Amino acid sequence: MNLTNIVLIGFMGSGKSTLSKTLYQQSKRLILDSDNIIQNNENLSINEIFATKGEQYFRNLEKEFCQFCSLNIQNCIIATGGGMPSVCDVKTMGKVFYLELEFEELLKRLNPQELAKRPLFSDTNKAYKLYLERKDIYTKSAHITLDATKSLANLSKTILSSL
Ligand code: S3P
Question: Which GO terms describe its biological process (predicted)?
């Protein structure tokens, strides 16, 4: 199994993209952010993909991204969308770190502008249900679970020293 990549998973707002930038600065590994790559490839925002092509179409793109990385990518930082561990085996991409955070904390971190980019966070009650459904999936999908309330420097150090 390919364990050279650092794979970040966790619910929306858990800080995967932010932490990937700190990891880049500390390690100079390149970042592959699945949401950014999918949006660029499709030339559409996540909201537009969900609205015009549907969620299933987006999930298929996530599966393809996961398969591609498993086969072709090494020594990179892979920041995943929050739903990816529900649609594919993220461990095939590399060493998986789950950024665990309480729902209340996620809510605090996502400002209105960030919330508006996320179709599955338009209704807080539904997002909370999804959060509960996914907790186990994240834990099972990860090699290591991290307390995402820790500082970026601390998280980055823990990840890089565990490789
Ligand atoms: C999603 C999370 C989002 C994005 C899409 C769906 C999810 O990514 O992939 O809106 O199902 O949890 P972030 O986790 O980066 O917000």
Answer: amino acid biosynthetic process; aromatic amino acid family biosynthetic process; chorismate biosynthetic process
Residue 3 has pLDDT above 90, yes or no: no
3-state secondary structure of 54: coil
Q: For domain 6-161, which architecture applies? A: 3-Layer(aba) Sandwich (3.40)
Instruction: Name the residue among 95, 116, 96 with its Cα closest to residue 46.
Output: 116
Backbone angles phi, psi at 53, to 5 degrees: -115, -20
Whether 36 has a pLDDT exceeding 70, the answer reads yes
- Where do the structural domains in the chain lie, given as residue ranges? 6-161
Q: Which residue among 8, 11, 12 has the greatest number of ligand 1 atoms within 8 angstroms of its CB, and so is best to mutate?
A: 12
pLDDT surpasses 90 at 2: no
109 is in an annotated binding site: no
pLDDT digits (tens, 9 = 90+) for 112-136: 999 999 999 999 999 999 999 999 9
Does 123 show up as a binding residue in the annotation?
no
